[in-house]
Amino acid sequence: MGGQIDVTDELLDYVRRVSLRDDAILSDLRAATAALPAGRVMQVMPEEAQLLALLVSVTNANRVLEIGTFTGYSTLCMARALPADGRLVTCDISEKWPAIASPYWERAGVADRIHVRIGDAGETLAELLAAQGPDSFDFVFIDADKANYRRYYEDAVTLVKPGGLVAIDNTLFLGRVIDPTAQDPDTTAIRELNATLHDDDRVEMCLLVMADGITLIHKKLSGAALSITPVIPPASGRAQPRTLDREGAEACAHRESTDCGPHPEAQNPPRIGGRLENPYRPPG
């Protein structure tokens, strides 16, 4: 069975009922964010944040970098998935967003894992690279100003370790990527990023039709050679187990800050069935 189903509001409600693991802290933070101007548009979808937490968990990430904090919902979800000694560096251009997020991080008991960097994201990433060197993070999430996505991606690929993951939000950009009349800088930047990702042989990638599009990027173990020791039966006739060995860089690190520019239509977000939460369908 193939094909892409139409994700209606009703189907999205069902998905959330059967898969979203929610609690009072998360729902309270979503409500506080929704009360802000354009908060519903800029807020990461809860199922997407849950996916990020799952990826942090299954990759055993210890050092996470987030470019774009906003009100800290995705920050909170990823920090919860870290081990007690894990570290999450989150970057934003404005102090007001982490100030909103901080009480919820405290309530969740993960504030000590989160380190906020305020300032221009490009400068922050350069500082991180100078201080910690390449390959210093296990996982990077990018959800910031779209015009600089390609720059952030290049920095992320440098900062993430071989075998690590980079996740990028809004890579379908409300469907504008396929609209030939959409030639604004943000849409153009997303198109250029998607083309870059497709042709980048340093990584493996997959663009998921989820939320506003999320692309997952796996940094290859560059130069890593897989060697298999031949199985040589000993005198007893019992085979010795083969051994696998990979040469590749390993690293841990810390994380940083960003320009969290407004999502398009932040001032007049499209309403779908009277709601703002379902970006799968075009307005109408």
Note the main attributes of this structure.
284 residues; alpha/beta; two-stranded antiparallel sheet; Rossmann fold; disordered C terminus; 35% helix
CATH architecture annotation name:
3-Layer(aba) Sandwich
Name the poorly predicted regions: 224-233, 236-284
- Whole-number average pLDDT? 84
In DSSP terms (H or I, runs of 4 or more residues), the helix count works out at: 9
How much helix is in the residues? 25-40%
- Going by helix content, strand content and strand pairing, the class is alpha/beta
Spatial shape: globular
Radius of gyration: 20 Å
CATH homologous superfamily title: Vaccinia Virus protein VP39
CATH topology: Rossmann fold
The number of strands is: 9
Q: How many strands, what sense, and barrel or not for the largest sheet?
A: 7 strands, mixed
Strand order of the largest sheet: 3-2-1-4-5-7-6
What top-tier CATH class fits best? Alpha Beta
Give me the secondary-structure topology.
Blueprint: H1 9-19, H2 24-34, H3 39-42, H4 46-58, E1 63-67, H5 73-81, E2 87-92, H6 96-108, E3 114-118, H7 121-132, E4 137-142, H8 149-159, E5 160-169, H9 185-199, E6 203-208, E7 214-219, E8 226-228, E9 244-246
Parallel strand pairs: 1-2, 1-4, 2-3, 4-5
Antiparallel strand pairs: 5-7, 6-7, 8-9
Helix pairs in contact: 2-6, 4-5, 7-8
